[in-house]
């Protein structure tokens, strides 16, 4: 890995910002717009045509039957099924703590103010297919929605010639997903956003996908809500001399193997550690089954940055705003207050990032591309909305009327002022 020793903080911050800028390929955008319009106009027929064209599969029924789901669950290797069920329990128990409560305040005489928290009615989750199958993403998307009280959770996933992935279907059963449709790509996002004869319209779409899925989510935003535009996976590690270079190398590669565009960044105040990690990354790459992908990611997107102090390390990592942040410093929890920008934080030498990807409970649907500066991990709050309410007594209205009228008249909105004045006239 490249070791950067002499570049000043401001220069590398600028380079990091430029590297994380998200743009949409105009060719992809045009194709996605065309697909969305076809699905809006032709519904199921367009979905079936696109499945034949893009997936090479002729579909007669878009829906996946309950019998097929049950069969996948029963046939799944018991060890994998047990792991999924235990992971689901952990995810549910963690997200249960996020549930927001409605509130009401009557501390001001004659005035009742409140917020009613209510779940979305129907959400759709996108689960990638092809060579990559992610049953863990099924759990991470669906369980917070169920904890939030969403009445109907719909899953879409690309059809496969050899049949849908058994672990993905089993995970859907474990998570309590209500309906599954075998459709993928931008056409699946369009179907969820606008509805077709078979697939009902949803209120929100979550889940990662390829560039076409990301562009489609961006295009339908406003018609429906979306979770985020997911970019390539990222890991940032803060480490000092107390860290094990072999562990650090393994953790960096755990994200680099995802995608040639994945980012793996180590920031340290130890030159010895930096050199040892660089050597370990090269050694471990040679034995990694996905070496070709990981090597490109490490060579093109990865680097080790050497700073003088832990304060500088933290300042730079806050600029990176990584999806995953490991803190492998002595007494790591003491630095949590200084971490402002990260999707999910992993504290200490035993807390390797894959624990969060699969099992421990915190969500692995996380902001990427520096968006952790202003956004958060997927959670129960993403599947709830808040409705405010207000009640005034006659006496309270009389008490506050002049202030409201003054503000309305200042903004030139005489109709607003009149709506208050007329009530005072009626009460005289």
TrEMBL record:
Keyword field contains Amino-acid biosynthesis: yes
Entry cofactors: Zn(2+)
Binding-site positions, substrate: 233, 255, 258, 324, 357, 411, 416
InterPro entries hit by this protein: Ald_DH/histidinol_DH, Histidinol_DH_CS, Histidinol_DH_monofunct, Hstdl_DH
CDD domains the record matches: Histidinol_dh
Residues annotated to bind Zn(2+): 255, 258, 357, 416
Keyword Protease: no
Residues annotated for NAD(+) binding in this entry: 126, 187, 210
Family membership noted in the UniProt record: Belongs to the histidinol dehydrogenase family.
Reported function: Catalyzes the sequential NAD-dependent oxidations of L-histidinol to L-histidinaldehyde and then to L-histidine.
NCBIfam families to which the protein is assigned, alphabetical: hisD
HAMAP family reported in the protein's UniProt record: HisD
Protein name: Histidinol dehydrogenase
Lineage, highest ranks first: Bacteria, Bacillati, Bacillota, Bacilli, Lactobacillales
């Amino acid at each position: 890995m490249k070791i950067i020793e002499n570049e000043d903080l401001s220069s590398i911050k600028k380079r990091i910002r430029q590297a994380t800028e998200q743009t949409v390929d105009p060719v992809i955008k045009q194709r996605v717009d065309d697909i969305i319009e076809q699905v809006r106009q032709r519904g199921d027929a367009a979905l079936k045509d696109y499945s034949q064209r893009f997936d090479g599969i002729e579909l007669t029924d878009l829906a996946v039957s309950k019998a097929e789901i049950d069969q996948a669950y029963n046939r799944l290797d018991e060890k994998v099924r047990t792991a999924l069920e235990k992971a689901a329990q952990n995810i549910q128990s963690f997200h249960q703590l996020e549930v927001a409560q409605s509130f009401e305040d009557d501390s001001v005489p004659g005035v009742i103010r409140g917020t009613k928290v209510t779940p979305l009615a129907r959400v759709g989750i996108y689960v990638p297919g092809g060579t990559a199958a992610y049953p863990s993403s099924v759990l991470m998307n669906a369980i917070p929605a169920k904890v939030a009280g969403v009445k109907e959770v719909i899953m879409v996933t690309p059809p496969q010639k050899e049949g849908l992935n058994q672990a993905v279907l089993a995970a859907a059963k474990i998570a309590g997903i209500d309906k599954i449709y075998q459709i993928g790509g931008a056409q699946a996002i369009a179907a969820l956003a606008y509805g077709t004869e078979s697939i009902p319209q949803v209120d929100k779409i979550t889940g990662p996908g390829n560039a076409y899925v990301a562009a489609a989510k961006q295009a339908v935003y406003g018609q429906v809500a979306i979770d985020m535009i997911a970019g390539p996976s990222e890991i940032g590690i803060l480490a000092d001399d107390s860290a094990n270079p072999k562990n650090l190398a393994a953790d960096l590669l755990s994200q680099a193997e995802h995608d040639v565009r994945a980012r793996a960044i180590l920031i340290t105040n130890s030159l010895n550690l930096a050199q040892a990690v660089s050597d370990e990354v090269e050694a471990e790459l040679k034995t990694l089954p996905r070496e070709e992908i990981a090597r490109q990611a490490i060579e093109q997107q990865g680097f080790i940055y050497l700073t003088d102090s832990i304060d500088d390390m933290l300042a730079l990592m806050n600029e990176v705003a990584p999806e995953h942040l490991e803190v492998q410093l002595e007494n790591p929890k003491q630095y949590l207050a200084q971490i402002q920008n990260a999707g999910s934080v992993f504290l200490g030498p035993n807390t390797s990032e894959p624990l969060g990807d699969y099992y421990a409970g915190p969500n692995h649907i996380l902001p990427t591309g520096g968006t952790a500066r202003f956004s958060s991990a997927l959670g129960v709050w993403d599947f709830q909305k808040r409705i405010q309410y207000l009640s005034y007594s006659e006496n309270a209205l009389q008490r506050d009327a002049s202030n409201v009228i003054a503000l309305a008249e200042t903004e030139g909105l005489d109709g607003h002022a009149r709506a208050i004045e007329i009530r005072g006239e009626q009460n005289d």
